[in-house]
Design goal:
single chain, 125 residues, 7-stranded antiparallel β-sheet, 3 helices
Amino acid sequence: MHVASIEQALATDRVIDITTIGRTSGEPRRIEIWFEQFDDRYFITGTPGARGWYANLVANPDFTFHLKQSAQADLVAHAAVVSGDEKARVLAGIMASVPGFAGKLTDHSPLVEVTFDGVPGGGDR
């Protein structure tokens, strides 16, 4: 996979799969989810409520980020919980830029920042 294809997919795609490690089972768990880009950073969020993917990422922040729309690639990724004033700022920015999220995200919404290992422009950690 060419780096340019990955960078383009990160810039334009929104639907991905993620594979997390189950916090109690230790087994891989793959789900489909959306990711958002804000402030040249990548985030996964959702409406308020308990989310298995979020609990898994809190317990085991290393995961696989599967591109599957304009490009297909499995990216090694890391999740960092975003909280406090930064969380409020990011959620407001996402709601302003994604019409479907307007008014649906609150301080009770899960929010993680995603960084990638070895992806130029991918928020390397």
